[in-house]
Write a structure and sequence with these properties.
- By secondary structure, the protein is α+β, with helices and mostly antiparallel strands.
- The chain has one domain.
- The longest helix is centred in the last third of the chain and has 19 residues.
- The N and C termini lie far apart (42 Å).
Length: 89
């Protein structure tokens, strides 16, 4: 008989983001719950997800090229970690 045990891992897979002297850890897509993934998909603010892990004033101070790099890296690392294609940037 086959068996599977499900549940949230103790350690989340994350992307470490360095901004200035500070570092932030953002969970990769495969570490998110279904509820978190749904909220991400429904968010009006494209960067609302990142603002949960990086203070809003820090996000707001980043250049558009930095934000694009953050989004691109998060998607790429999420795809590598979970072997799932997250689509276009």
């Amino acid at each position: 008989m086959a068996e599977i045990t499900l549940g949230r891992k103790e350690t989340l897979e994350t992307l470490k983001v360095n901004i200035g002297k500070d570092s932030y850890s953002i969970p990769l897509m495969g570490s998110l719950t279904l509820a978190e993934t749904r909220a991400l998909a429904k968010a009006d603010d494209e960067f609302a997800f990142f603002k949960k892990y990086i203070p809003e004033d820090v996000i707001d101070s980043l250049a558009i090229n930095d934000l694009k790099a953050l989004t691109t890296m998060w998607k790429a690392e999420s795809e590598k970690a979970s072997d799932v294609d997250l689509g276009e940037s």
